[in-house]
Write a structure and sequence with these properties.
The protein has one domain. Helix content is 62%, strand content 0%. It has 5 helices and no strands. The longest helix is centred in the N-terminal third of the chain and has 13 residues.
Length: 91
């Protein structure tokens, strides 16, 4: 909602806060989205290590998009379809 402005103005900072709270409580979609923010550097300092860690948590819960995405996090976002996929979910 805050990440892409659905029903409200986009607010990356608020989206980051909510994704973090939800991810820490074990919500796979939030873990995946938080990984997306770290992968793209949206609202946070880019960290492929943090991106992998969060996406891996979503994978552990069987989150399908995360399973396919985790393989591509090693590739720099501007050289990969991962960046497009992640931006679709977050922005």
């Amino acid at each position: 909602m805050y990440g892409n402005g659905t029903g409200t103005k986009p607010d990356v900072k608020r989206a980051l806060e909510l994704f973090t709270l939800s991810a820490e409580q074990g919500l796979a979609l939030a873990q995946f989205n938080l990984g997306a923010l770290y992968s793209s550097g949206t609202g946070v300092e880019q960290s492929l290590t943090a991106a992998r860690e969060w996406v891996a948590k979503a994978v552990a819960q069987g989150f399908e998009e995360a399973i396919a995405t985790l393989k591509h996090i090693e590739i720099p976002p501007h050289h990969s379809h991962l960046y497009v996929l992640l931006v679709h979910f977050v922005v």
